[in-house]
Design brief:
The protein is mainly β. It has one domain. Helix content is 4%, strand content 39%. It is built from one helix and twelve strands; from the N terminus they run ββββββββββαββ. The protein has a six-stranded antiparallel beta sheet with strand order 1-10-6-5-11-12. The protein has a four-stranded antiparallel beta sheet with strand order 4-3-7-9, with no helix packed on it. A hairpin with a 2-residue loop joins strand 3 and strand 4. The longest helix is centred in the C-terminal third of the chain and has 6 residues. The two termini are 23 Å apart. 34% of the residues are buried.
Amino acid sequence: MAGYMKKLNGYVYDGEHKAYAALANGTFVEIGANGVVAVTAAGDAEFRVDEKTTLWGLPAVVLNCVIEGTKEQYFLENDHDIYNKDTYDLATATCAVGEYCRMHRPVVNDQLIMTVSDETYAALAVGDTVKAAVGGSIAKKA
């Protein structure tokens, strides 16, 4: 997975917590007892699908936060390690175990873009509402 924040209402990132497991850039995460992990339970923040597109050749969606929710779930945007590689490839950027996580908790009207599986891409339409899902991706609101 890959992704990044496109529009922020206040440029506030949390960077004080370390990854407990290797985390793919552009996923939803939360702070667990031992550090940052992929989302372990469905979120309550809601996002509107504003656009279906591609990102680095992968299926992707542009999401707009419409409800912040009460669960402290964040969008991981660890892109600093890409500058130390031979090729600029955000599609494979990760946050390694023990590395500080650069993450943002979306608020209303924040916009992000993230890659999704082919199945998720096919199941979504512009205007659908989604939430963070177990594992860090998204799922259509039931």
